[in-house]
Design goal:
With about 140 residues, the protein is mostly beta strands. The protein is built from two helices and six strands. The relative contact order is 0.25.
Length: about 140
């Protein structure tokens, strides 16, 4: 686990890690970037209910154990502005930003790819796009 934390620290640029406005405190990033590489498939059939993700700095099957059960967010922009959830203070507050949530379920292969399930299933437009693997819920 200590090595995993060092991976996260090492992935931040030095100028961001020691920004002057933080006064010695490190900025906190609660997610690790990932890319959706496709859906789980066989030679001829594809199942859209399981997505394949490649998480940054995860290069082996043993590294995947830390991410099992973690929540994954696919953030995208919709066509129309809609009122946001929990905006009772300002009902006029509207945004195009939407989020689809999923969870890392297991490893896929030996090179650090993971399987994730989303509800609803991710659209095919998400292939090659960035996702966020949040570092909660913690299993430590």
């Amino acid at each position: 686990l200590k090595l995993q934390f060092l991976y996260l620290i090492g992935s931040l640029p030095r100028r961001v890690f020691f920004a002057p406005h933080t006064m010695g405190k490190a900025p906190v990033r609660l997610f690790q970037p990932a890319v959706m590489t496709g859906f789980r498939r066989s030679q001829r059939n594809q199942t859209q209910h399981t997505s394949l993700l490649k998480i940054k700095n995860v290069r082996a099957k043993e590294d995947v154990d830390f991410y099992l059960g973690k929540r994954v967010a696919y953030v995208f922009k919709g066509k129309n502005k809609v009122s946001q959830i929990r905006s009772a203070q300002n009902p006029k507050l509207k945004s195009r930003v939407r989020v689809m949530w999923g969870r890392v379920t297991r490893a896929h292969g030996n090179n650090g790819a993971v399987r994730a399930k989303f509800s609803p299933n991710l659209p095919s437009q998400a292939m090659g796009k960035k996702l966020r693997v949040y570092l909660y819920p913690s299993r430590i």
